[in-house]
């Protein structure tokens, strides 16, 4: 005898999805988990290394691994499996209910000139108040030597370190403004003068926290 129910679903049909597979998924997993080699996924998820190779050769979608990643990190399944939206869309630059002095920041590293998402970063708002009086739009960027707090609302290059994009490749560079909308970009011991329109300013580094 079938159980009776007073609830009636209004869903008449569910559309199918075109899921990503193979390296399209594993590259995203490596980015979220801060892994450089595909085969290291086997160690993280405790699976045979040959399984990862099979995903690549057969363009397989590792659904169970995707769900485990979502539960562990909060990464969006829409982003991971469908390439839609942001990796962590629920993360905003806002105060948490638990601690009004703590900001939860989107957190990235640069990989091949692109922002690769990491787990969210908690940040003490007291440090921010000492650095700026303007309402910021913040992200955190992990480098080899420091964690940088970047204000994406500050896109007018005057003087300081900025996250910039040249030919759709991002980097952190020291910039000094010159007359006639000219900028001096410093690359290590070298520098070059370019027009402001030749680059895109993503945001300014307002705080740098050196790694110990």
TrEMBL record:
<feature type="domain" description="Bacteriophage CI repressor C-terminal">
    <location>
        <begin position="106"/>
        <end position="206"/>
    </location>
</feature>
<dbReference type="InterPro" id="IPR032499">
    <property type="entry name" value="Phage_CI_C"/>
</dbReference>
<feature type="domain" description="Bacteriophage CI repressor N-terminal">
    <location>
        <begin position="24"/>
        <end position="88"/>
    </location>
</feature>
<dbReference type="GO" id="GO:0051259">
    <property type="term" value="P:protein complex oligomerization"/>
</dbReference>
<protein>
    <submittedName>
        <fullName>Transcriptional regulator</fullName>
    </submittedName>
</protein>
<dbReference type="Pfam" id="PF07022">
    <property type="entry name" value="Phage_CI_repr"/>
</dbReference>
<dbReference type="InterPro" id="IPR010982">
    <property type="entry name" value="Lambda_DNA-bd_dom_sf"/>
</dbReference>
<dbReference type="GO" id="GO:0003677">
    <property type="term" value="F:DNA binding"/>
</dbReference>
<dbReference type="InterPro" id="IPR010744">
    <property type="entry name" value="Phage_CI_N"/>
</dbReference>
<dbReference type="GO" id="GO:0045892">
    <property type="term" value="P:negative regulation of DNA-templated transcription"/>
</dbReference>
<dbReference type="Pfam" id="PF16452">
    <property type="entry name" value="Phage_CI_C"/>
</dbReference>
């Amino acid at each position: 005898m079938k159980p009776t129910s007073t609830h009636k679903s209004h869903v008449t049909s569910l559309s199918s999805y075109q899921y990503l597979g193979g390296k399209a998924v594993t590259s995203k997993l490596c980015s979220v988990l801060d892994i450089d080699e595909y085969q290291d996924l086997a160690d993280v998820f405790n699976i045979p290394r040959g399984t990862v190779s099979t995903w690549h050769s057969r363009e397989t979608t590792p659904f169970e691994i995707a769900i485990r990643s979502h539960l562990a990190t909060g990464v969006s399944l829409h982003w991971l499996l469908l390439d839609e939206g942001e990796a962590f869309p629920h993360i905003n630059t806002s105060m948490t209910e638990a601690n009004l002095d703590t900001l939860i920041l989107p957190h990235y590293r640069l990989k091949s000139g692109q922002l690769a998402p990491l787990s969210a970063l908690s940040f003490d708002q007291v440090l921010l108040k000492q650095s700026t009086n303007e309402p910021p739009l913040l992200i955190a960027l992990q480098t080899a030597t420091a964690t940088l707090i970047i204000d994406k609302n500050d896109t007018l290059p005057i003087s300081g370190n900025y996250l910039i994009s040249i030919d759709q490749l991002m980097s952190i560079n020291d910039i000094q403004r010159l007359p006639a909308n000219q900028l001096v970009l410093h690359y290590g011991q070298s520098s070059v003068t370019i027009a402001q329109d030749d680059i895109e300013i993503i945001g300014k580094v307002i705080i740098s926290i050196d790694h110990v």
